[in-house]
């Protein structure tokens, strides 16, 4: 008895459904934009507050809270109904945005980013669930593709918008703009989205969600151990590593016994699932995790303003769109995803290995070409982990498998951001004092850099370029790990639509 699939859409009137969909896409745009829009403004924020060593935490605090809250929100929607869970998530995100815009220190900003992430996770999960209530399966596929376009648009517009707003109205405006938008979306959903009482009461795996969040947080803190505790071998850092290992083991133990686990352990019986998760982690590390560092690199080594640096991100996003559209069509036509996983990792490995050799005077056109190559690399395999795990998982585990890919991608980004931040901070702390006329290299905003004498500006640019070289080599090593994993993957032939329908009909008959 599969009553959930066959029920009538939540809203009968087509026009009202479209207006609601528009509100949902605005909320999604707001939540996904927030990681990208901050990137080009970050050097200005660091210039105001200092604490370059905590630069990465502005991104990773948001992503950590986002990924930790996502598994719980899906079940809460099933338990209490989508409407109020979705509205709560938007309210939390809006309050978090207001606190970010009014932040008085780096620590306040990081704490407010956690609050934003707790709301953002709920927005991203609830949107797909509400779409499932609003549209019938065939219609839904079309609207989900519009959601993907919104995700791509936020990646394209974010850095440009963040840089421009930072230049014109100050960095606080990029957070405060969410407040009126959040209020409008909340009002629209309150008035127009009907409340549907959930038909079933799921068992929420709170213990699994908490242990998974603690494990990921421990890895991120350990990766940042040099900056936080002075050394990776300090007692505090070793304690965090031990705590993380304990949480990971406890999580496996809990998931094996949970009635409705976040990630069913049976998925790992298929080696393809584990390999695709590794690809997803490496992809998150270099696709999402690198955004903020590209912005810092462009503004410190080339002297570009925040808005000009944002414009250069169009090449990166253009590459992602081209790669993604090409791969989507070819995978659909040929039914094989392994070649795209290999091509993707190879493109990004070459791009980062070359970027590691870049010095302060390198032409911007050359850097732009490398960003385009990396963008094409990201795009080629953007859909691969999702398509792969959905094909590898049993029908009842497809949702959990897709969620695991999203979590691993966000987790990979959070961990990588901390590693990159530790590399930059360690390198700059060694050379920051040796530049005449610069008291503290970390407190230089792009505007202050532009006002420096030519020789001093060149010294600062070279200092940053030498700090970024090991960071890009680390990213190249992560991409190379993704390449090796992609080579090991089985060259699976995806079933055609007709075969899939036959197998689904057989499964229904068996039930």
UniProtKB/TrEMBL annotation:
Keywords assigned: Cell membrane, Membrane, Transmembrane, Transmembrane helix, Transport
PANTHER family in the record: COMD, MAJOR FACILITATOR SUPERFAMILY
Taxonomic superkingdom: Bacteria
Membrane-spanning ranges: 20-42, 54-73, 85-104, 110-131, 143-162, 174-194, 206-223, 229-254, 275-296, 308-328, 340-358, 364-381, 467-489
Record flagged with keyword Secreted: no
Membrane topology: Multi-pass membrane protein
Main location: membrane
SUPFAM superfamilies noted in UniProt: MFS general substrate transporter
Gene3D superfamilies: MFS general substrate transporter like domains, Multidrug resistance protein D
Protein name: EmrB/QacA subfamily drug resistance transporter
Gene Ontology cellular-component annotations: plasma membrane
Keyword Cell membrane recorded: yes
Species: Rhizobium paranaense
Residue ranges annotated for the Major facilitator superfamily (MFS) profile domain, each copy included: 20-494
MF terms in GO: transmembrane transporter activity
One Pfam family from the record: MFS_1
């Amino acid at each position: 008895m599969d009553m959930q699939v066959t029920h009538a859409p939540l809203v009968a009137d087509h026009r009202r459904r479209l207006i609601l969909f528009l509100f949902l896409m605005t909320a999604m745009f707001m939540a996904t934009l927030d990681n990208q829009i901050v990137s080009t403004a970050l050097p200005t924020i660091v210039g105001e507050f200092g604490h370059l060593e905590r630069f990465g935490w502005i991104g990773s605090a948001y992503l950590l809270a986002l990924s930790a809250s996502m598994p719980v929100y899906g079940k809460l929607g099933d338990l209490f109904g989508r409407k109020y869970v979705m509205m709560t998530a938007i309210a939390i995100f809006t309050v978090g945005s207001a606190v970010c815009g009014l932040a008085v220190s780096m620590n306040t900003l990081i704490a407010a980013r956690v609050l934003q992430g707790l709301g953002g996770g709920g927005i991203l999960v609830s949107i797909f669930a509400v779409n499932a209530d609003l549209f019938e399966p065939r219609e839904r596929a079309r609207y989900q593709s519009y959601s993907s376009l919104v995700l791509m648009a936020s990646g394209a517009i974010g850095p440009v918008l963040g840089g421009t707003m930072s230049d014109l109205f100050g960095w606080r405006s990029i957070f405060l703009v969410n407040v009126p938008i959040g209020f409008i979306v909340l009002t629209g959903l309150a008035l127009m989205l009907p409340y549907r009482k959930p038909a079933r009461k799921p068992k929420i795996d709170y213990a699994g969600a908490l242990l998974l969040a603690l494990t990921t947080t421990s890895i991120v803190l350990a990766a940042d151990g040099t900056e936080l505790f002075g050394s990776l071998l300090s007692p505090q850092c070793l304690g965090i590593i031990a705590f993380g290992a304990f949480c990971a083991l406890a999580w496996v133990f809990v998931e094996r016994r949970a009635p409705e686990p976040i990630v069913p352990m049976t998925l790992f019986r298929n080696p393809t699932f584990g390999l695709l998760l590794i690809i997803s982690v490496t992809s998150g590390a270099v696709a999402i995790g690198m955004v903020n560092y590209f912005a810092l690199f462009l503004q410190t080594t080339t002297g570009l303003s925040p808005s000009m640096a944002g414009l250069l991100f169009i090449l990166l996003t253009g590459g992602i769109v081209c790669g993604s559209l090409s791969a989507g069509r070819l995978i659909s036509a040929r039914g094989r995803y392994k070649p795209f996983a290999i091509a993707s990792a190879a493109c990004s490995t070459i791009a980062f290995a070359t970027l590691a050799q870049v010095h302060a005077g390198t032409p911007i056109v050359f850097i732009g070409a490398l960003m385009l190559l990396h963008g094409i690399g990201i795009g080629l395999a953007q859909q691969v982990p999702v398509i792969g795990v959905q094909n590898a998982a049993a029908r009842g585990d497809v949702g959990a498998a897709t969620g695991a890919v999203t979590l691993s991608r966000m987790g990979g980004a959070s961990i990588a951001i901390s590693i990159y931040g530790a590399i930059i901070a360690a390198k700059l702390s060694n050379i920051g004092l040796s530049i005449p006329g610069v008291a503290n290299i970390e407190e230089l905003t792009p505007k202050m850099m532009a006002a420096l004498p030519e020789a001093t500006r060149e010294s600062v640019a070279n200092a940053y370029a030498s700090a970024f070289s090991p960071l890009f080599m680390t990213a190249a090593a992560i991409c190379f790990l993704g390449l090796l994993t992609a080579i090991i993957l089985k060259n699976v032939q995806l079933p055609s639509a007709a075969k899939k329908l036959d197998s689904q009909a057989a499964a229904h008959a068996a039930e």
